[in-house]
Amino acid sequence: MKRKVLIQQVGRYLIDFALIAICYQLSLFFTKINEYYKVDILFLGMSVLGWLWVSRYSNLYTDRRSKKFSEEIVLVGYHMVLFTVILGAGIFFLRLNQVIFSVRFIKLFLIFLGITTLLVKYFFRKRMHAALQEGQLFDDVLLVGSTPAALNFLNSIKQYYYYGYKCVGYVDNTHNNIEGYKNFGTIDNLEEVVKSQVLDEVVIALPASQQVEIQKCIDICDYYKIKVSILPDLRQYNTSSIYINNIGQMPVINVGNLPLDSFENKLIKRSFDIFMCMVFFIFFGIWLMPLIIILIKLTSKGPAIFKQERWGLNNEKIICYKFRTMYRETSDTNEHGEYQQAYKGDPRITRIGKILRTTNFDELPQFWNVLIGNMSVVGPRPHPTPLNIESMHTVENYMLRHIVLPGITGYAQVNGCRGETKTAIDMQKRVDFDLFYIHRWNFWMDCQIIIQTVINFIRGNQDAY
Prior knowledge:
Layout: H1 3-30, H2 39-58, H3 69-94, H4 103-133, E1 139-144, H5 148-159, E2 165-171, H6 190-196, E3 201-204, H7 211-223, E4 227-230, E5 241-247, E6 250-256, H8 263-299, E7 305-311, E8 317-323, H9 351-359, H10 366-372, E9 376-378, H11 385-391, E10 407-409, H12 411-414, H13 424-439, H14 443-459
Parallel strand pairs: 1-2, 1-3, 3-4, 9-10
Antiparallel strand pairs: 5-6, 7-8
């Protein structure tokens, strides 16, 4: 591990320990507790140990520079829930609540600690990204193979610098040339390359049929104590949910059911949808939606609510509700009779409609769709019927996105796949994100997507028009 990275990781622990002490003092100050007992050290020690113990299960200190900040927010929330349980149990069994600590003190301590932890996480994240952008803290990797998986890996680390990888070159038994990267020869040269180059990791991207070569590479890397990652080609399983399990000492790829096939997960997701709808209508919908309706009616003729046929669960047609953002007399087909998606500078969009589409406020009536059960808060975005018919013949696995309820927001949208899909490649990218979400759904992933949606709303999105 690079010395700078090690220093940063140790620094994170020390800073969190300091934050615990600072939040403790702030809580004492705001609760006006002036009597100090020997429990100070006992409470701080218990808090530090509990914080470290819980971090083993919450993975609080896992490097997530390649993930979105919304995932870190959910992670910190999960960590704070576990820490609260541990802290509460410790206070109860040590009977510290009878000595000095009130409920108000504990609440303030946890609130201060949660907020400061998020701020520190954000600070470290930005410092890490800044260092990577300046060419620091990269992990030097050697690629073994030139398969499609290898090329996808190179494209990803080139496009997303904050993943923190820099490829120094590759070895491969084929004569494929990877432009822009040094060819160190065949796999037989791997040991010489490992000895002559300073490497942090070797990434193996060979076909599964080359088991002998893969094991040879692993043995060499183990001998020289270099981290190894394997990029398996699992495209044949991309229509199924897969996970790695062990039978004895043998790794096994399990092709299982979708997470949302189980009744328990369906119940959790439906309960969460209803809860989110209630929160929206009580705190926002009751005043925001009437205001938007009035603005639409004042700026253009026609109904404020637009109804459009879209495809929902199991390809069933549903009526999707939106605020009208286009002039009533416009058509959704072009001069050739083809479906015309909204595009940048589209003259069909009204003045208030442009604001609604940019902010995603035009989707707010879909909370009614969620309430009646034909949509979810999070899921693949439903497309108009003409776009479905067009895409089902040109996009691989397109219809599989309809095996779950569509959503108001989705994993594809928070990853930049929103707005007009100009080519089949754009739509394929969106579908790939949707399938990733479907196959790996969990409650925390929905929370992350909702938080990221709010973050994107605050930032603004240039692809929204």
